[in-house]
Structure prediction request, 148 residues.
Amino acid sequence: MNLQNFEQFVEPKIVERGLDYYENEDVRKVEKVSENEFSAVVFGSEIYTVYVKLNGNEIVEYECDCPYDWGDTCKHAVAVFYKLRAKDFTDSAAKFENVLASVNDFALRAFVRKLLKTDRKFRNEFFRTFDEDFAEDEFEDEFDEHYY
Ligand SMILES: [Zn+2]
Prediction:
């Protein structure tokens, strides 16, 4: 699936909803965060963050933090694909690297510690990545048909 043909691989209803989001300019802050990775914010019933990794035009990986997580592509990701197809994004890759390089270990740990206490999404992602014994919190993954 790539930026030119993703419509063929996604349920028509979802493509249509994603196109609506794109046309209504609900996709904001589309940033290139590395040579082939992108981050965007989509205004839906809530504000969602979408991550996309490309290889040229090929969509290698994508992720949205909405609860529509049944292995299929959500409308928010589709909306971001349209934005990337239009090459409508800001290049923030250099800024990311510069700021990260300027932060020392101690400050970074203090920052992570604060987020672990205050941001449940971050906490889940942190433990999912670093804790071998991590068990998913099923409560937070409850599916709601509203998110179609
Ligand atoms: Zn989504």
